[in-house]
Amino acid sequence: METNLLLLDSYKNMEDLVAYAFSFSNRLKRNLKIVYVFDFDWMRQSFMVGATGPVNPALVAVEKNARKEFKVAETKIREVAADYMKKHAVKISFEVHVTEMNRIDVVQNELDKEPGLILFISNHQSYSEASGGLVGYPNLIEHVGCPVFVIPENARHAVLKEVVYASDFNPEDADALKHLLRLIHNSANARITVLHNEKNYGFEEKLMWTGFKEIVKEETGNRKLSFSLKNNKDTVSAIEEFAGENDPDLLVIMKERKGFFEEMFTQNETKSVLTHFHKPVLVYHEN
After folding, report:
1. What are the distances in angstroms from CA 247 to CA 140, 160, 164, 214, 262?
2. All structural domains of the chain with their residue ranges
3. Distance between CA atoms of 249 and 165, rounded to whole angstroms?
4. CA 126 to CA 134: how far, in whole Å?
5. Contact present, 265 and 273 (Cβ < 8 Å)
6. Structural contact between residues 110 and 33, judged by C-beta atoms closer than 8 angstroms
7. How many CA atoms lie within 13 Å of 284's alpha carbon, on the beta-carbon side?
């Protein structure tokens, strides 16, 4: 049984995040590992970057509070998990760990042990928010080598009836869709719609769209995939329109090395993309 890794680095929305991770994992029959990580070394180094005088007292207070939470994090998570299991039937195994390791290294270590790992994270940056923007952290989606599932605020129950995969005609879309089909095969009545946006839909684009649909069906071996073509000024507008019409439960995107989706996942745009649609977002990586 493959594993989902829920990475926590604060108590913010902890009950909802744990509940959603359990719900998703239980529904798709995947084990769950919950790791509370707080990289104090990174925080200290960030405090000192460019510092010419005394460390900001506010940042000292942030670390002090973080250490207080860190000491009881495992107990807190186990209490939240126990409360969830009292109310719901859980048929998967789960583990809880705490660490001061760099969180990118945490993910890589788990990925080395479990190639089928999926990383679950919140859509907010706790380090930055706790310090009033004075401390940042490398973008996890940019630096990890596994699919990343981003949980929005106020989500507790995993529903996977309507899934939309936003495509930009990437050659690796078929591989990502095959993984997605395997992932959700235990979710009854789940439907995947492949969405593409084309600003200029002429004869050549029509041929590409027709050929793309046939290639995807052939390579995935699934003839029941749905397809939707939009004609908007940009892909975000197309996804917004599709979401308004169909209310999908999950948005899936390929993080590309070039092209429109690369622009969506620049350092400045990532947070906007992941919070814009108020939906869970699953991110696959090109290559």
Report:
1. 27, 11, 10, 26, 25
2. 3-151, 162-285
3. 11
4. 12
5. yes
6. yes
7. 22
Identify the CATH assignment for 3-151 out of 3.40.710.10, 3.40.50.620, 3.40.30.10, 3.40.50.10940. Answer: 3.40.50.620
φ/ψ bin of 280: left (φ > 0), alpha (ψ from -120 to 50), beta (otherwise)? beta
98: three-class secondary structure by DSSP: strand
Q: What is the CATH class of 162-285? A: alpha beta
Backbone angles phi, psi at 223, to 5 degrees: -90, 0
For residues 223-237, average pLDDT:
89
Residue appearing with tokens 């948005």? 251
Structure tokens at 147: 């699919």
- Residue 229's SS3 state is strand
- Cα three-residue angle 145-18-144, rounded to 5 degrees: 10
Which amino acid appears at position 8 of this protein?
Answer: L
Q: How confident is the model over 91-136, as pLDDT tens digits? A: 999 999 999 888 889 999 999 999 999 999 988 755 545 444 444 5
d(CA 234, CA 190) in angstroms, rounded, equals 27
pTM recorded for the entire structure: 0.87
Q: Which helix (H) or strand (E) holds 122?
A: strand 118-122
